[in-house]
Amino acid sequence: METTLSVSPSVSFPFEVKLSFQPFVAFLKAQQEKNFTNTALSGLYDHLLEQFETIPTADETPLEDLLGPDRLASLFQLASLAVMPLSATGQHIAYTFGLPIPMKILYQSARFTHLIEQFPDLLSELPKDICAEDKLRFLYQLVLEKCYKVPPGRNATPSFRFQKHKNGLTRYFRIDINNTFIEPHLNRSLPALQSSWIDFANGTGPLPEAEDQLPLGEFTSEGFAFFVVEDITEAETVQQLQAVFTHLHSDSEPVIYRRFETALRNLVGQTDLQISIVPFSQVNGFYVHQPEVSARSVFFRHSSTVIDGYDPATQSIIHNLILNPAPLLFPDLKGLPGNEQLLLTKKGIRSFAFYPVVNGSEMLGVLEMASPHSTAFGDDVLETIQRVIPLVQELLRYQLHQFKQNLERLIKTKFTPLQPAVEWKFNEVAWEYLRLDNRESFNSEATQVRFPQVYPLYGAIDIRNSSNERYKAVRQDFADQLDTIQTLLGQAELPDELALPNQLIATAYSWQNKLTTGLNPEDELGISDFLTLEVNPYFQHLRLNDPQLETPIQRYFKRVNATTGQFNQALQVYERSVEWLNTAVNTFIEKEEKQLQTIYPHYFERYRTDGMEYTIYVGQSIAPQKPFEPDFLRHLYAWQLKSMMELASLTHLLLPRLPLALQTTQLILAHSQPVDISFRQDEHRFDVEGSYSIRYEVLKKRIDKAYIAGTEERLTQPNTIALVYSNRREVTDYLPFITALQEQKKLTPEIEYLDLEPLQGVARLKAIRLHLNYPEPARQRYERER
Questions:
Q1: Which DSSP string do the residues of 278-290 spell out, in sequence order?
Q2: Looking at residue 750, what DSSP letter applies?
Q3: Which pLDDT tens digit goes with each residue over 287-334?
Q4: Are 388 and 522 in contact (CB under 8 A)?
C-alpha cells in the first residue's frame, strides 16, 4: 500500500530523498562481511544481495514508478528480514518503509495497516504538526552523521509525538525515523564543519544565521527510511495521572477529579466509564460518612447504603475488605442487593467494579467504576488499573490529609488555646464582636486581628541534599533486591515453567541497567510492579512447592517490607537519620523558645520541612503593656546567632552516631524594617500585609536556594552560618555578636562577604558566611566518650 503525505505548502525545503536501494545494498555487504563465519546469516545476506543488486538506478523516472507497487512490496518484505526481529516482522510492530521528505509510505506492516484502519488519518497531519525547525534539525542530523561522521547526540534520535481523538478518547503515538539507509551527497568539497551545526542538531543551540547554515539545497540524497509507530497511550496517561499531583495545592477539587477521571478513561479505553474515588476517613478509629464525598460516589449517590461511624456492621464490612482487598466485580450487577440493582439499572448502569485501596492495615478508600456495558471489566482492564493503584493511593492520602487538616482547623478554631503572647488580642476582638451584638461580619475591619510594626526574625536549619540522599537510598534498595533476585534465580535449579526464571533474570538485569542511568517516576513504578507482581508471587509459589528453596527464599522475604513488597533497608537508614536530626533540632528549639519568651513576649511560628524553619514576630503592638526597648531586639539577634551555632554543633556532634551521615546547613535572614501582620481566618495563621512586608515573605521562600554571584556554589554549606541581608545597615547589629563568638573561638576569624545571584522577584541580595569552629572533631569526641 502507498500513501503520500505532503509537507504544508507554506513551508519549503530545498531537500528531497529519492528512492534507491544502493545504501541498503552497502549495508548488506557490510553485514555479510561482519558475519561471514555464521553460515545461516551469511546465506540470508547472499539471498538478499541477489535480490537487491539487480535493481536498476533511477535517473529521470522515480524508482517507485519503474518497479511498481507489487515489486516494491516484495522487496520491502525482504528488507524487513534484515532490519526487524524475525519474531516481530509484520505482526507486533507497526512499521513502514518510505521516504521522509516529502513523507511517502511505500510499504507497511500488518500492524500498521490495522492502525490505519482504526485511524485513517493517522499520519496525514503529521507533516504539518512537525514544526519547520524540527524538520531542519532532522536534516542536520542526517548530513552531519553521514557526511561528517558526527554521531547523533544522546537525545537526537528523530522521534515525534502526536495524538488522535476518537469516540471521546485520546490515543497518543510516537513515530521514530531510522535514516540508516539514506545517503546524502555533495558534488563538491564539504564545507568546514561548524560547532553551531552540531549544537543545533543536538537541540542545544539555535538555528545558525542564514549565511552560516548548512547548504542543504546543494545536497542530493537517496535511499529510504524505516518508520516505527508506537502506541504510547499508557505511558503518556500515567504521566498525566502523575501530573495531577503537582497541582493538588493549586487546582480546585473538581478540576483535580476531572483530570484524573479523564486520564483513567483514556488508559482503559472506555469513554462511557463512570469513575469515582471515595476516601474512607476516620474519626477516633471509626470510619465515617462524609455526605459531600458520597455525593461524588457512583455507588453511594445511587443507593440507600450509608456509612455510619457507629454502626458495627459497617465497620465489620470495611475491616473485611482490609483483610481481603481483592476487586469486587458485578457484571450485570449480579451480587448486589436487589434495591441497589434496581437503582443502578435506572441510571443506565449494567456493570460495576469496586476496588478497595488498602495500605497495610489501613483502608484508604475505594476506586469505583461503573459502565453501561455488562462485560466492561475484563482481566485487561483490571491489570491496567492495578498498575496505577499507587497513584490512586496518593490521591486518597491527599484527600484524607485534607480531611484531617479540616478537622484540626475546626478544633483549633473552637477549642485550641492560642499562644499566650497574642491571646489577649483575640480576646479583645471576640469581645468587640459580642459587644456589637453580631451586627458586624466576623471578617469586618472591626474584628480583624492585626499587629502593626513588628520585627521579623527568620532562621532555617536544613538537611543538606536530603532529596538526593533519599533518591540514593531508594536506588540502593532496588539494586540490592534486584541483585538478590538474580543470585537466587541463578544459583538454584529451578523448574522451567515457560522459561519464567530466565525471563525474570533478564528483566532484573534490564532494570539494573536502568538504575545506572537514573530513574524517573515511571521507572520506579515499573520496578515496583516487577517486584510485587512478578517476582514475589513467583518466589511464594517456589517456597510452597520446592522444599529445597524454602530457606533461601525465607531469607529473601525477611528483607522484604510487608507493605511495599520491596527491600527498604537503605531507606530505613536514611529516614532514621532524618528523624534523629529533626528530633534533636526540634527538642532544642522548643526548650530555647520557652526561655526566649522571658526576654520579651513574641509570636513564634515553626515549620517542619526537611529540617526546621522558624519566624519570630516581636514588637510593641504584641505586648502594649511592656515597653519595647531596642535592647530586646539586640538580645534576639544574639540569640539567633548563638542558637544557630549550638544547633550546628549539636548536629555535627550527632554525625558519627547517625546511621547515615547527613549534614545540616544554617541560615538567618536579617531584616531590620518592621512589618505589619494580620490573622488570616481562612488559614488560621498570621500573614504579612503591604507590598514591602510581602517582599519579606518572598525573601524567606527564595533564599535557601541562593547561589553566590558568578559561581555555581550554593550559599548554604555545612559547618557554616549564612546571614542574608539587603543592605549593610541590616547586618550591622549582628556584627558585635559575631566578634564576640570569634573571640570565644566558636567562630573562625574568617568572614566571607558575598554577593548573591538574582532570585525570582528578588535582586541585589548580599550575605556574610561565618565558619564554625568546633572544639574538637566529632569523631574524636565520639570515640573518647565511648
A1: EE--EETTEE---
A2: E
A3: 776 666 777 788 877 766 665 555 677 777 777 878 888 888 888 888
A4: no
